[in-house]
């Protein structure tokens, strides 16, 4: 350790040590491997092995085995920083590695007067940190026959080898193919975690490009931040496009540059699949892009810099990606080691971008709720100055090392001697998750023994973040809850504002043991919240006369229950691609000490829904088509601009006091839409919905020998080039898509209940929205002309044409139980508690590419 000054600051940050070995040519199971020239590695010598947990290296360690690890870059950076700062600025940096825990602990020590430069040095060091990652793609000689010769995976085609080498150089990653058996192999990619994600995306796209049955196209974005805005809530629109076109959509990295990785790739959304369907998918994405460009909302939220660092270092990427998908908002977190707040090095700015002000606000709220899981602890002590000042620094240094390694926590200390009064002031700061913070206390309690002195004065402070909305809840009536905690534990509790979402709760005490008691009592009073959806038509019955029913449940389970209606939630603007997403409208909340009552209260509420649905609810059905569903969920259709909101189903349910079981996934070609309500409400709701359904223009067609080809194309069976089915897709389906007109094939004509059937007739139905402007008539005329020209050209005889009456889709009413359990699996829920796993199975996830 370097020579210390009169006072000093010590900072320790634990970092994950990640590494992989490359056996390459020495391994008999390797079919292909390539190490790019710019990839840093070292030979796995005996000296290097001693510094690594040998049990983690694997059984094969040949003479040419290479080691990729993230210690090399940090070691070099530490040396550079010591050359730059150790002499003039008296700042020293060191790097230690704990072999058993696979941790590296970087230590900074400098004079008290150099605190700003210490923060600068810390950021420079962290900007060089990254984690190695391995991911793989399983390949099969049967599925990927175009990648291999002779039907065996040992014979990788030269074209694919060349592409893999180019991508390895482009992304600076190691790529290998490992033999499993004659028909299967594993393609492995190792490198910087961000580089691996980029490489996997590129490899999958390249594989589809080699596939003779697929083509590749892309949509360029100005920035990757537009990707979630196009996807909408839960990436509903990307899923919808893939279902309609059978294409694969490859998205840019949703969280680019968390580590300091400069992506060489521009922001593009790639689409692969059948040529005609790729054109449809590309057109759909471009329409979404044109729509969201005009409605972009931006919000900035403050976060403490150390919590920003922990958000990245604690491997929260999956949570952040799920939050992005859930809200349809982009979250820009400053790159690790980069501060964008030049006025205050202790605070950073996170930016949130979305196409709805409401969802941007919701995303910020959920992110700040997650941040509350991180605690901050201050421990200040005053003691007599020991004889050896440097011994104090040495002992404090090793105490911090113990905390950093054992609890994986960011920890710092200031040592401030008061020579005049023969005193020394110590201040420790620990930042980590709540459980780890509590485990550091025994280590801090051992300081008097460690320093061989008595503490003259000490104080412990725990800083917790809590949502501003919960201030009244945590205070209690007339601050009753906090007063009770302070009386029981001899702590002081202060509340102070931090940002527009969160406040800071401070627990202050002169005694460590008492502080833990106070912290536990406060945590017992912190709110535990679960939210879910109950169809609004059941709310009044569940609440009961004067709230009697719900109050009984609240008293029984010691919880608070609140119901929201659609008016309180507000409306989504027509520009926001979020149609048919049900919001959580029931909140169950209680102090954490009573959280066991929440699941029981939730079950009781759901049982009431089952009970009421059995008794008096009538169900009316609308017989709808796939075309209806596609048009109703396509918010880029000009029809939706004539509406005040995209929450059409929620509005309808509110007005008619019904439940509309609208499917979130693309349904069968013809499906029954169930509407449930009291008395004749379901029929009124069905009538209202029928007035906004698309217009159906039906062509009745004489039987034809090629009719089956049209049916197959309609069912998304890929037709062979040059067939009638292929020309149907190219000359009818695709042009009509551009006109916002859906076309659907039926084996027999759609009939009214009272209509006479024309035996042997087939049907082609054009569906479109009719708007008040003049554009509809020209659009319809052009669509009809396109279809008629195709039918005439290929000899299909039109027997009749008619416009369907939407009222005829209402087919019957019946009493009976609403299948609420089935409803929950068909509805896309918008959960406000993203880390409550009990309810997450209802959210249908979008695959990550």
Automatic annotation (TrEMBL):
One GO molecular-function entry: RNA binding
Where does the source fall among the domains of life?
Answer: Eukaryota
Q: Mind telling me which Gene3D superfamilies this protein's record contains?
A: K Homology domain, type 1
Against InterPro entries, the record matches this protein to: KH_dom (IPR004087), KH_dom_type_1 (IPR004088), KH_dom_type_1_sf (IPR036612)
Which Pfam families does the record match to this protein? KH_1
Give start and end of each K Homology domain.
Answer: 213-290, 295-372, 526-610
Q: What protein does this entry describe?
A: K Homology domain-containing protein
Which species does the entry assign this protein to? Komagataella phaffii (strain GS115 / ATCC 20864)
